[in-house]
Amino acid sequence: MEIRASTVLPARREPIELHTGDGLTLVGELALPADRPPVATLICLHPLPTHGGMMDSHVYKKAANRLPALADLAVLRFNTRGTTSDRGTSQGAFGEGQQERFDVAAALEYAEFHDLPRAWLVGWSFGTELVLKWGHDPLVEGAVLLSPPLHRATDADLDAWAAFGRPLTALVPEFDDYLRPEEARARFARVPQAEVVGVEGAKHLWVGEPYVRIVLNEIVRRVNPSGYPLPLDFG
Asked: Could you give the angle at the alpha carbon of 213 between the alpha carbons of 110 and 142, nearest 5°?
């Protein structure tokens, strides 16, 4: 079976709830390999909810549809506070990236409590800001950033990640609306362990199956190298 944009591969998928330290309930979904334990876990932090970002933003939806089967990964997606998707609406209101620190912590606590292995943060746009500001947790093995704007995240946050020492990869579209590869390399130079990967022809939203494949492959290459490159067919 050829893997297309709409392909949904076998997995164990279950609705979940996260509970924040400030008393909110967030809705999400956990997708696990169908018949074996995961080798690592992706915790997905979505784009800006005030501009349509949510747990079903297309790259994350496709990650959940494919990566449990293709790369033995658990994919945990959730709506940050005040965000709505088909799964429902998380309690609370958009916190400008500050109150969302409780949301990041709740996702990591869920992963730890449920013995999900080797947690990696994957942030997209606004989600990258949450990774850089609030992702310094001993449970985190590393992070992948998609289209980082470096708007809310400051040089101080980059310095903090440098001190944190975990691997960091930034996938930066050639035609990004906010931060393009050359500038990104200059900004991320503060983080010695950071790698900036410019993606030719891509735009901020990674629209188009070829760009989705690049993103998913680059994630898998770092999180579970034995699963790279992802196959184009299944079964």
From this structure: 40
